[in-house]
Structures are given as structure tokens and as C-alpha cells.
Amino acid sequence: MADLRGGDLSRLRQLNSLTAIRELRGSGPLTLSALAERTGLSRPSMKEVTDELMALGWVEEVPPSQGTMGRPARRYRFRADSGHLVGVDIGGHNIRAALSDLDGRILAETRQPVLPGAPLAERLAAIERAVSGCLALSRTSVEQVWLISVGTVGTIDVEGRVIYSAAVPAWRDLDLAGALREVFPCQVLIENDSRLAAMAETRRGVAKGARDVVFLHVGRRMGAGLIIGGKVHRGFGAAAGEISMLPEARWFDAPEHLNTCACVPEGTPPEDAAGYTLAAARDGDPVAIEAVERYVDDLAVGAAAMVLIMDPQMVVLGGGFSRSADVLLDRLRERLERRCMRLPEVRASTLGDECVVVGAIDYAVEHLDEQLFTPDRGPLPVTR
Amino acid sequence: MADLRGGDLSRLRQLNSLTAIRELRGSGPLTLSALAERTGLSRPSMKEVTDELMALGWVEEVPPSQGTMGRPARRYRFRADSGHLVGVDIGGHNIRAALSDLDGRILAETRQPVLPGAPLAERLAAIERAVSGCLALSRTSVEQVWLISVGTVGTIDVEGRVIYSAAVPAWRDLDLAGALREVFPCQVLIENDSRLAAMAETRRGVAKGARDVVFLHVGRRMGAGLIIGGKVHRGFGAAAGEISMLPEARWFDAPEHLNTCACVPEGTPPEDAAGYTLAAARDGDPVAIEAVERYVDDLAVGAAAMVLIMDPQMVVLGGGFSRSADVLLDRLRERLERRCMRLPEVRASTLGDECVVVGAIDYAVEHLDEQLFTPDRGPLPVTR
DNA sequence: CTGACTTACGAAGGAGCGCTTCATTAGTAG
DNA sequence: CTACTAATGAAGCGCTCCTTCGTAAGTCAG
């Protein structure tokens, strides 16, 4: 039930302006006639609307397309460059940042390595360096950034305070949103990284267009993100997807099967062990295959729980181990098939390491849209 | 992002009419001034809207309230009696039906006993008897019924075809919606009964107002229904909530702890065994308590999985065993607290056996609202 | 290069909806 | 009976969108 409310005449104009913007955002430059047809308005009215939007800086004219019959029509397009969005991925070893326009098109990316045990101040400084780097790369000033969207491990409450973070202990109880707001003069959004990755996959990855998606983060730690009805599902206490806490789901220690496999040569750094096992399994090493089988056995229990409870359209395998999806996918499918009523599609992430940053951007775009298209908050800033 | 679309001037009127209807439905009879204030319109405009709605039969005038200062204001109210809704609960042993007005206020209820093994035709006949009974009780003709909403065990696909039903094998592959549509000349909705019970609890039961709710059906069979964002969550293949299929969740055989308890006297009919055990546990029988502990141990695993994955605001315990909620609730809470990051509220259903019928009615109301308040489908039938 | 054709533009006039304003009406309080 | 209160109903205005028309700016055929 949409939040429709009638009202003044001016409200009707507002509604029409917003539909126009939405159409322009959705499909490149459009002529007046095309816009009129899509929005259902007459051409003269459409003209008035676009004139207003141009004056406000939301829309601009582009050169008419040539070679058509008849008088060339003016074309208009959404000014995606009238503002910018920043996405940040705060990982254990790396901090990634990306800058995008208002359509979520990525303009620049940077990465700042950081030691897992680095103190708080150092981490925050690295975040600032990563973001500034992006801005510098595309010659954008920080005032042009409308929204910063951050993904990190752990659970984050509604106000952007970190509740719990196993990977980055220093994060606990930190008012992350507040700390970032002091550095960057704009709105700050914080979300769990698995949820943002899930978002990215449904917006531009392998699950594009799906409404209900379960994203499995398989890597040195296990995590999950849910998309329900096309939107990120946070849960009442922002703790949705934490199935790895349940011993019976057998997720928490699952990676140990890969880490402690006998096939891993002595002296291998612990963070490379699992990767080695997966590679060995691909090459047919029976010991490694045995370890992978046991790993997927465990992975499938928690995954089946999520599938049975949610009945999603698709399960997406992401995170570090998803590089070895060829070794994992069929095995996971086979086990899910056995346990679930209806086997959803099971696919591997296509976005790789950028998954979370890109998801942060997509999350920001969604947030922006929501502000834009929610009546009573009115078309946002004007002619920046 | 609301489904806002601008358009014609008449569209604005439509929007205003709908908000007026919504306000009137929400809070009893209202005067013009009150309506105007709530919708944001001016009084003269409001008058025009209500005149139109009266002409269409959606709204009627009621006598003005007396004893107020100044000229008594006309009062208007939504004509909830201008149409009717029917809810049906197809259980193993009973078929319940209820008739309500368009606000979901229940006007009549009936129950038809039916044998678990009854053939298809007999069951359908019982449904028809139950519904006709309701109509007769409140002297309503079948033409006045806008919507029939049915709850049943098993999974039902989008078109109303039964995919799977453990309790009623004859149901399998039956086009239930189609069969009912042949008998009743109106729209037919089919849903899983646990989901409808969940709906009832969030609409008028113990979880009223909550947006994310997990409903646990505890009884001779186990089931679950999810409410996410205030709406029933079906899942992509209408199979959401089927966690009892997962052996590791330990739900499927959980009731056996109660059924086969040594405390149950020989000769007790099998359907009463669990109830006996629960009652004995309440009275302090240590053997029964032991069985209940084991039962809740199992129940808590699947429940914890749902809580960890969804992070709901509330868990509602419903179904036959919830009559013994006093024996179960604290034990369940204690186990969930141990397993989950954040313990949601855990409460017992307050609606009892009528849960599913009432939920069916609520589901019908929601469906109606959605049709009503979704633009482009326009205010439904006129002056019935 | 010219004329026919196609398509878009822009201005003018009209209808619908909501707003404000003001005199009128129907009650209660003293 | 009079003063006061609050709703009613009618009149006039402004905004938004619509339809209709003549005009402008291209392409295409000869």
C-alpha cells in the first residue's frame, strides 16, 4: 500500500516531476515526447515540468540525436553529476573506497592497506585517506558528496553505533557514524558488509532483478546477507543473518576443514591455507577433496536453514572462497537439493573484491531514491 | 519508494478520495472538519470528495453528535457493510468459516467437523456448508461477498494450486482456488495456515503493530509463518517457513517427546497424549517435565535458526500446544537467550483456535486495501 | 536547389480541482 | 431572548493539465 496522499495542486506537479526524474534516471536521455508518453502527461505539460527541473538543476539538455525524420527533438537527461556518493568497505586488511555519481556509476576507486590490529585512530585516518584519494582522482570536492555509505563487519544499530564486531575488536561500542560525520560534512550510512554485498549482487551482479536473495559470505569468516522484496533486510535489532552463531547450523567452525587440511604444506601462512586446499581439490588431490566435502557438508546445513526459512529465488556465493566456486557450487547444490523443498538457483558472485564497496554505493543510491521519491520530504537540494 | 505516479487532475481527486476512505476506515465516524484536517484538504474540497464518495456508496452519513457547541457537524463513516469478506480454515478435523465486513469485523462464525480421511468431494462440500452457514447466520447473500480467503496446511503456489500437503494427501495437485471459484462467484485467495495465523497475531493479537514477527505453530505438527515488514512472507516458491524439513533443526520429530512420554496412561488416544504430558508437567510430574525439557530443547533449535536469520521483533507461540504456553514460554526464552545475539520478545498467541480464520479475514482485508489503494486499479466496484 | 513530407515546437483557449473568503444557519449558554 | 460558537454553502481566484492549432526545423526525392 503505497504512501499515497493527495493534497494540493502543487503536489500533483511534484509527483509528476518525480516520475519524470525517475524515468530519466532509468533510461538515458529522452525526448519530450518519449517522456510524455512514459509519464502519461501531455507534451505541453511535460515541457513545463522539464523547464522547472532544468531551472532546479536536476535535468539538463543534451544535443539532439541526428539523422531522424522530421524536426530533431530536444533531449533531456538526469544530471547524475550534480552530486556524488561515496562507498566505503572497512575490511580487516584493506579499506576500499569508491566515488560514484547519483546514478551509482563508479568514477574512482582506491584501496588503503591497514594492519588488522591497527588502533582506532589509525583506521579512521586510513578511511579518510581512502575517501580523499577517490575525490582527488576525479577532481571532486568533498562538498559535492551528498552521502557516505559504509560497510563493515559486525552488527551496527540504527544510529550507526557498532554493537559487536568479532573481526575488529576496537570497533565495539564505537559511534562510527558520528566519528565519520565529524570528518565528512554529509549524511553517513552504516551497514553490515554481507548485506551490502547482497545488495550489490541484486543490483548489478549475478542476482540482478531478483527480489528475494540469500547471500552467503564464504571466507575465513562466515556471514550472510538477506535481500527481501528487493530491499536489504536488517532485522529489528540489525542482527539478521547471524546464523553462524548457532552451533547446530555448523557454520562457525566450517572453514577449519579447509584451514587444517593435511594437504597444506608446512609453513604456509594461515591466511593462505584454505585457498591452497581449494586449489588442491580443483587439481584432484583426494585429501583436499575430502576436506572440501566436509566443509560443504557444514556450509550446507546453515544454507539449507536459510533457504527453508526464506525460500529465496537465488542463493549467491560470495566472499574470498567464492573464487573457487567451481569446486563448491555443485557440491552445495547437491546437498541443498537433498534438504530443501525447492532448490533455488545457486550461483557464484561476479563482483569479486569490490562487492562491498559497490554495494555501499548501491545502498546509498537506494537511500537517495527513497528520500527523493518519498512525498513530504520534497525534491532535495537545489542547484548545488 | 512509494508507487507514486502523477498524472491527470482527476488522479489527484482519486488520491484524495482514497486518503479520505483510509482515514474514515481507521477512525470511526468523522466530521468534515476533522477529515479535512487529517487529509490536509480544505473543507470545501473535502465536501466535494465526500459527496462523491457518498454517491458511489463508499461512505454514508450518520446522525450528528449532540451536545456540542455551535452548529452540529455532519458526520460521515465508511460503509464497511457495503461488501463482505469470508475467511476459511481448512484443518484436518474441522473446517471453520467466518464472515466479516470490509473492516474485518467478524459477523458470524461456523465450524464443520470433517474426518481426516474424507475424500475430496466431501471436504469441498463441507467447506461450502461452512460458508453458507455463515451467510445464513447473518442473512447475507453470496453476491455480497467480495473475497474468499482460505488457509490450509501445505504449500500453495501463486495460482492457488496445492503443491504439497502432508496432512491432507488428497489435496496434492488440486487446483483449490479453481475449485472454490466454481462454487463461489468471487475472488479466491489461498494461503498457508501458519502464515495466516501469523498475520492475525500481528493485526489483532499479541504482536499487534510489530513489523517483523516469527510465528511458531506448535502442535501435533510443526509449522512457522513469517511476517516481514508487516506483510506475509511467502517466499519465491511459496515455501517459506518450512524449517521442519531440516533434520538438523530437530523440529520434525520434536512432538514425539510429548507423545511418547512414559507419564501418559495407556489407552490415551494418541491425539491427546501431548496435551496430557503438558498438563502433567504443569502439575510438577518430573517425568513429564523431563519430556517437556527435551521437547523445548528441540523446538529451540529451529526457533533459534529463525530468530538468528530474521532477527524479528517478536516470536509468537501458537497452535494446539500454545494452550500450555505457561509450561513452554520461559523454557523457550531461556534457550533462545543462550543461542541468539538479541532475544526477541517471546509471547503466546491470544487468538486460540480462531487464529487461522481470523488471519484469513485479515489477509483478505489487506488484499482489499492493496487493490483499493493501488493507483491504476481505481476505486473498486460502485454502489453495490 | 527546391518542394513535399515528417516531426517537434510554442502559443492560445478551455476544463477540473483545490483554495480563500464571507454571509448564513443551527445549535448551546446565560 | 440574546450572545456566542462552529459548521454550512456559494462565489471568485489561481494553478495544473488538456486539446488544438499554426509554425519551425530537419530529411528525402527529383
UniProtKB/TrEMBL annotation, chains A, B:
Gene3D superfamilies (UniProt xref): 3.30.420.40, Winged helix-like DNA-binding domain superfamily/Winged helix DNA-binding domain
Domain HTH iclR-type: 26-62
One annotated GO biological process: regulation of DNA-templated transcription
Domain of life: Bacteria
GO MF entry, a single one: DNA binding
InterPro entries, A to Z: ATPase_NBD, ROK, Tscrpt_reg_IclR_N, WH-like_DNA-bd_sf, WH_DNA-bd_sf
Regions crossing the membrane: none
Family: Belongs to the ROK (NagC/XylR) family.
Listed PANTHER family: BIFUNCTIONAL UDP-N-ACETYLGLUCOSAMINE 2-EPIMERASE_N-ACETYLMANNOSAMINE KINASE, ROK (REPRESSOR, ORF, KINASE) FAMILY
Name of protein: Transcriptional regulator
